[in-house]
Amino acid sequence: MTKRLYSIPAIGLIFCLLLASRLLSAQTFFTAEVKGKGKPMILIHGLYCNGDVWKETVERYQKQYECHILTLAGFGGNAPSLNDHFLSSVKDDVIAYTKTKKLKKPILMGHSMGAFISFWAASSAPGIFEKVVAVDGLPFMPAIMTPGATVESSTPMATQIRNGMSNQTPEQTMANQKAYLPSMITSPERVDQVVQIAVKADSKPQGQVMYEMFTTDLRSNVSAIDCPVLLLGAWIAYKPYGVTRESALKGYQDQVAAVKNAKVELSDTAKHFIFYDDPQWFFDKVDSFIK
After folding, report:
1. Which end of the chain is more exposed for a tag (fewer CB within 10 A), N or C?
2. Integer Cα distance of 259 and 221 in angstroms
3. What is the pLDDT of residue 179?
4. Could you read off the pLDDT of 203-252 as tens digits, one per residue?
5. Using an 8 Å Cβ cutoff, are 145 and 138 in contact?
6. E strand or H helix at 135
7. What percentage of the chain carries pLDDT values higher than 70?
């Protein structure tokens, strides 16, 4: 019978490799770039985007905050890691990342899709986050467009959107984004900037994200959020379609009615990318809220 001997250094190396493997596996659905020092702040971008959209936001806050800037799998040139519950997986990864990195009560800030993920993470893990800043993102997007919408009524459209988006070529993505983004961003230079980010995105995750956002209703889930929430909204781009400030405000307030401590602020000048269209208003509202 042969006895196999293991040295203590070898055992230590094996342990470290296993630990590293577990830590890496905890971040399957995004990469993170860290800038600055201070209280932790996690920033999550929107559809077709990546962490670069937060450049000016990070520049403002990195002297006082440790900014963790996420870019999701399949976005911004990152390799996709797609499944049938992609956003739920991202949400779980955000929570796991917060725990693994031992981030103490981070501020969670998300734009559009990122706000949806932020609502989901904060409602799934009470006690972990200090505050949530949702930048024109909602717990259930279809209801802001069609009052009375449900998951069931939205599923056919969600399926159609996913099928249409999932197989777009980079050339088709560029053409579609050039046509669509002016309704979401006022500055032509900013539109071009986001278009260049969008063409790096994998099309299948974009379609899957839209499907999940149309078929996941978090309006009751958010009642579990135990920290203050600031929801920043934009409405002026929809004024030609009959939307008024009053109707928009009610729509946003209804979305977070179940949150114990939620504040809604509407910009009267910005489109969907509020931090590009009205940065001073954006920073004033966020500064007041997080300080």
Report:
1. N
2. 9
3. 97
4. 999 999 999 999 999 999 999 999 999 999 999 999 999 999 999 999 99
5. no
6. strand 131-135
7. 91
Helix 203-214 to helix 151-165 angle, to the nearest 10 degrees?
Answer: 170
The C-alpha angle with vertex 53 and arms to 48 and 59, in degrees rounded to 5, equals: 165
pLDDT of residue 206: 97
- For the CA atoms of the chain, what is the radius of gyration? 20
Q: Is 44 contained in some domain?
A: yes
Amino acid residing at 235:
W
Contact 42, 98 (CB under 8 A): yes
Number of domains in the chain: 1
Instruction: Assess if residue 108 is contained within a domain.
Output: yes
The answer to whether residue 61 is domain-embedded is: yes
Residue 201: CB atoms within 10 Å: 24
Which residues lie below 8 Å from residue 88, measured CB to CB, with a gap of 6+? 120, 212, 216
The domain that holds 62 is classified in CATH as 3.40.50.1820
User: 205 in a domain, yes or no?
Assistant: no
Domain residues for the domain of 36 are 27-145+217-290
Q: Check: CB of residue 141 under 8 Å from CB of residue 149.
A: no
Helix axis angle for 203-214 and 86-100, nearest 10°, is 100
